[in-house]
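User: Predict structure, ligand S-adenosylmethionine.
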Amino acid sequence: MNRDTYEIGLPIIQKAGVEHKINFIQSSALSALDELLEDDANRESFDFAFVDADKVNYQKYHERLLQLVKVGGIIAYDNTLWFGTVAMPEEFVKESQKRNRLHIIELNKFLANDDRVQISQVPLGDGITICRRL
Ligand SMILES: C[S@@+](CC[C@H](N)C(=O)[O-])C[C@H]1O[C@@H](n2cnc3c(N)ncnc32)[C@H](O)[C@@H]1O
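Assistant: Predicted complex:
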């Protein structure tokens, strides 16, 4: 969404000699994924996806990424513990955290029951759910 943010890291990326591996797409993630899906060559072609943007759309990303990531590939979701609030009674949750908390709880339940992936919940930082496509 924001090229300025990418450009903060760009000198480090260049210093590491990996700029040629990056295709920066300035776009909302949903439309970027939909565009990738228009080309059949992209389907089941990715090894790994890391999702760390708008929590409200995580399930929509999941449906698209399952088509883009190959069998055995990984889709990782950040913030799936949402500051620990997913395991707290609602009365202890700050008002500002409530909305995303509900989306994340819904995603966690969904992923736990999704037989297209095997999952591992990693309790590091704000929680990462690693999904391996079956
Ligand atoms: C928490 S930061 C990601 C940090 C990144 N994963 C890292 O480790 O450096 C969230 C990023 O998602 C971007 N973002 C938010 N909503 C988005 C959307 N709908 N589509 C694409 N990017 C979005 C924001 O501009 C921001 O750069």
